[in-house]
Amino acid sequence: MQSIKSLDESKIIAALLHDVSNAHGLVFNNRALRLTLKKLNARLACEGNGFLTKTLPRLAKAFDKALAGGTPMNATELGFESLPGSKLPRFLGELFSEVLSKDGVLLHSPCVASVKSLRSVLYSFYKYKLPYSDEQEQQVLDRFKETEKDLSSRSAAFEELEAAVERNYQSRRSLSFENTPIAVITRRARALLQELFSTFDPLDIHPRHGPGAVATRQKLQEKYLWTNVSGKITEHYPFDAYFCASMGHVCDEFETFSKVSSEDLPARVILVPKDSRGPRLISCEPVDYQWVQQGLGRAIVKLVESHPLTKESVFFTDQSHNRALALEGSKYGRYSTLDLNEASDRVSADLVRLLFPKNVYTYLEACRSSSTVLPDGQVLPLKKFAPMGSCLCFPILALTVWAILAASATDANARECIQVYGDDVIVTTAFAGDAIEHLESFGLKVNRDKSCTGGLFRESCGMDAFNGVDVTPVRFRTVLSSLPCPDVYTSWIAYANSFYDRQYFRTYDCIVGWLFHTYGPIASDDMNLSCPSLREVPDEWKPNRRRFNKCLQRHEYRVYDVRSPLVTRPMKGWSMLLRYFSEAGTDCPLSWAKDSVRGENMGIDPLPAFSVSQYTSRKTSMLVKRWR
After folding, report:
1. Of these four, 193, 437, 553, 603, which has the most CB atoms within 10 Å of its CB?
2. Amino acid 473: pLDDT
């Protein structure tokens, strides 16, 4: 292992190809490797990093379609030269030939190891968070607006459907429209959600502030100084009961509270880096909306994860169920994975009003933003129930999808096998076609390119599975930087370890050599230190500054670690008490580590006692030297 002064994407992909050659020497031999590297360098010189971030992922998606029994691969349509007499690309063609026939369809006995290696190369830079252009930004905003227009065009249909269902409830007559498939599914979905929320009290919530940005731009302790609380909210969540610490708070701050505006402020759209394809759109909620949304959203999640009707079907914190079924589905074909496109933006307020119980929807609507401000200052009325950024977006999306699918699954087995985690859905393969049709009949949009209903490939909740084997590639996200940076340090150590675990040792050495040159000595796993560590480090490159801690009776090393600085802000007494009531009781998975001695002995930082005047500053993590 040698120290590497500089590292770029071309060196990483070249090292990755060497590892692939070592793993498939009989097929992808030295000559094939040499020709592939030559073609790689030529395409990089012509297309730049776009070859890694756009062209290769496009080839990878076509490959996944073929694996899932979809469209056969055609190299020329993807911008690659094909093998003689074949539709497979000449680039890495030796490996493609181990999986696909000359016609681009899946072989009867494909090589799983080749699938794993191909996806490792093709998808490696797909999630790379490169700066995005103004054109990409405008495309995202245009899609957001187009979705709103589409939802608006469906409003009349939902109103008619709601009226038809209500007439059927009241008259119990068998009218033609009331007995259409979509009306029958609607009635069943409403009944399921009515049963789910039968004992739910929307007023029994514990509001709190979230960690993210808000439309009204308050930061840290400023969020507790109410300057605007929408009258739409206080109509259902009285100000004195839900926005104050106690009646004493109301009395002492009465003059201040009497000046609080009741204006209904809009949300605010921001664009954040996502991956090489462009930015992600997030809608920041006004602070008063977010306060109630956090409480109501948590209460709904708690209900869903404990109710017999949904606890085995709808998940918010545990992806293992979907991942396990995706793995099983790729082996035996019993389960199919569905992916929703623009999922959070496609659930309209009309659809939620149609399906959810009226007493619940009343409170959901009370803390829903009805408009948002775009980056150019335009105020856009919202037909969607909650864009990404709202605390209610995820739970309402999942419940809407589950209710539609459970109501449309007439077979008991199909109904019991429905698994929903946000926009990742798993159903039985026999039910998959009907599931797609029913979801789209309610205005949702299934991403058929990422949905897997045939073949031997399945994808759900970060699990890419082929024929019962995990073929999930390592995807680089954090962009390389020659300057020391905490995000780069932790991310690229994690990437290196992932390649080591896959036995891609040349790629591991390539990344680690650069890390040593940039950051100096780095701890290894066998040192058992509570800091970012590499799987394997030569003795001469391990940290050499050591001391013996008499209190803990152990050796400690001076190593790099990452910490977020605490920000201390003075707060008024009542605001401090309000924050204490809303946050001090938060469950912590490492609550036992609050015992400083026990936490230190287990190699875990002791958690400081909750301080209402201290905050962890967001996105300001620091790389520091400390004894571990």
Report:
1. 193
2. 97
Helix (H) or strand (E) holding 234: helix 231-234
* Interatomic CA distance for residues 218 and 284, integer angstroms: 11
For residues 200-218, average pLDDT: 92
- If asked whether residues 457 and 525 sit together in one domain, one would say no
C-alpha 70: how far from chain center: 26
Task: Determine which helix (DSSP H) or strand (DSSP E) holds 268, and give its type and residue range.
Answer: strand 267-275
From residue 514, how far is each of 2, 500, 508, 598 by CA, in Å? 9, 15, 10, 36
Both tokens of 562, joined, read 């990452």
| Residue showing tokens 């960690």 | 211
| Pair (458, 531) in one structural domain | no
Within 10 angstroms of residue 69's Cβ, the number of other Cβ atoms is 16
Helix, strand, coil shares, percent, the chain, to 5: 45, 15, 40
Instruction: Give the tens place of pLDDT for each residue, 134-173.
Output: 888 899 999 999 999 999 999 999 988 888 887 766 555 4
pTM: 0.90
Asked if 385 and 279 count as a contact pair (C-beta separation under 8 A), the reply is no
**Same domain, yes or no, for 523 and 460?**
no
- Residue 602 has a pLDDT of 31
User: 295-346 pLDDT, tens per residue?
Assistant: 999 999 999 999 999 999 999 999 999 999 999 999 999 999 999 988 889 9
Residues 415 and 564 in one domain: no
Neighbours of 133 (CB within 10 A): 11
Looking at residue 565, its amino acid is P
Number of domains in the chain: 3
β-sheet bridge partners, residue 428: 335
Parallel, antiparallel, or unpaired for β 424-428 and 335-339? antiparallel
Q: Which domain holds residue 245?
A: 220-466
Answer whether 534's CB lies under 8 Å from 497's CB: yes
Q: Do 285 and 422 reside in the same domain of the chain?
A: yes
Burial class (CB in 10 A: 0-12, 13-18, 19+), 91: buried
**How do 424-428 and 267-275 pair as beta strands?**
unpaired
